[in-house]
Amino acid sequence: MKKIILAISILITSSAISQEIELVNFKSTDCTEERGIGDSILFKKQNGNTLIIKITAEFNCCGSVSGSIDLKKRFLKKNILNLTYEDYSEEYCNCICYFEYTYTIEGIKKENYLVYINGKEIEYTN
């Protein structure tokens, strides 16, 4: 009986956390005037296994940003979808701009995750 329970637990665990996702597109708006908003979620739409999330950020005016994603899989809890944006430029200016970043992600199951931006949980209110 213990072997059967162990086998069932392994199957449930592997199916619950075997979700492969891919960032298929990352877009950034041009620099606009600083708004004092910080990181927030502007828009979130899921169509099948495709998720589009638009976030806000305030960042150095001269920065060049790349986006990435990471899905931390957790058993018996919602997974964590971490959206990151990182500056890869070597040039900085003495100004801050407001940006909007749009992430298009494929392979994610609907509402099976919490959204984090650069490691911090961000709640989305429609």
Q: What proportion of the residues form beta strands (DSSP E)?
A: over 45%
Mean pLDDT: 82
| Annotation, overall tally of beta strands | 9
Helix content: 10-25%
Q: Describe the sheet with the most strands.
A: 5 strands, antiparallel
Ends apart, CA distance between termini: 47 Å
- List unreliable stretches of 5+ residues: 11-17
Structural class: mainly beta
Number of domains: 1
Order of helices and strands: HEEEEEEEEE
What value does the Rg take, in angstroms? 18 Å
Q: Which descriptor suits the 3D outline?
A: elongated
Question: Helix count, per DSSP?
Answer: 1
Question: Your description of this structure?
Answer:
By secondary structure, this protein is mainly β. The protein has one domain. About 15% of the residues lie in helices and about 50% in strands. The protein is built from one helix and nine strands. Strands 1, 2, 3, 4 and 7 form a five-stranded antiparallel beta sheet that branches. A four-stranded mixed beta sheet has the order 5-6-8-9, with no helix packed on it.
Provide a short characterization of the protein structure.
With 126 residues, this protein is mostly beta strands. The chain contains one helix and nine strands; from the N terminus they run αβββββββββ. The strands form two sheets. Strands 1, 2, 3, 4 and 7 form a five-stranded antiparallel β-sheet that branches. It has a four-stranded mixed β-sheet with strand order 5-6-8-9, with no helix packed on it.
